[in-house]
Amino acid sequence: MKSKDIKILVLLAFFVAIEVILANTPLGYVPIGAINATTLHIPVIIAGILLGKKYGALIGFVFGLTSFMKATFQPGITSFIFSPFYSVGEIHGNFFSLVLAFGPRILLGYMSGLMFEILPLKANLKVMVSAGFNTLLHTLLVMGGVYVFFADEYAKALNVSINQILVIITTVIMTNGIAEIIIAVIASLAVYRACYKIVGRMIDR
């Protein structure tokens, strides 16, 4: 195999391993006051930037798969969002659970790589803009999907009125979402600079 192919496989294995570790340990969720911000999106963003949009999408798929499996085998009160196999009384997942589990995560990796390629900025700034924008996009797609596809179920799971759901979702975006953007920008830039010195950037052109 060519040296570049070997490096890509090694980095892919590395990002997959990191994603699985984050998904199954407290490292995947950072407590900030009364909220928890996830770090699972960070390897997806960095994979897209370092390896290109195709491989970023692949690691995004892994992110989605970990969400689906966790929601299926370690369910919580809102697991219906990411697993069609969750069912408790009137609350249950469906096909759109798979859409939310995989769609925004795959797009996260793809768009991170694409934005790094096309933005007419210096590398460090491109990393920060791509990480920040795509983290926000990911949050909006997931929480927007919850509102569109699961508003009734979400209200029942939280034991609140359906009229309160939009306020709750907006609050999540403004708290968790902003925290995740800050974490993503700082961590993505730090990891990118460290990894780039070792392996450079290998886009899938």
SSE inventory with pairings:
Elements: H1 3-23, E1 29-32, E2 35-38, H2 41-51, H3 53-73, E3 87-88, E4 91-92, H4 95-118, H5 123-158, H6 165-199
Antiparallel strand pairs: 1-2, 3-4
Helix pairs in contact: 1-2, 1-3, 2-3, 2-4, 2-5, 2-6, 3-4, 4-5, 5-6
Essential attributes:
single chain, 205 residues, mainly alpha, two-stranded antiparallel ribbon, two-stranded antiparallel sheet, 6% strand
Please tell me about this protein's structure.
The protein is mainly alpha-helical and 205 residues long. 72% of the residues lie in helices and 6% in strands. β3 and β4 form a beta hairpin. α2 packs across α4, α3 packs antiparallel against α4 and α5 packs antiparallel against α6. The longest helix has 36 residues, at 123-158. It is globular and about 55 Å long.
Coarse structural class = mainly alpha
Low-confidence stretches: none
Side by side, the strands of the main sheet go 1-2
Give the number of helices. Answer: 6
Cα Rg: 17 Å
The biggest sheet, with number of strands, parallel, antiparallel or mixed sense and barrel status, is: 2 strands, antiparallel
**What's the overall geometry?**
globular
Number of E strands: 4
Oligomeric state of the chains? single chain
Strand percentage: 5-15%
- Series of secondary-structure elements, N-terminal to C-terminal: HEEHHEEHHH
- Give the termini separation: 18 Å
Helix content: over 70%
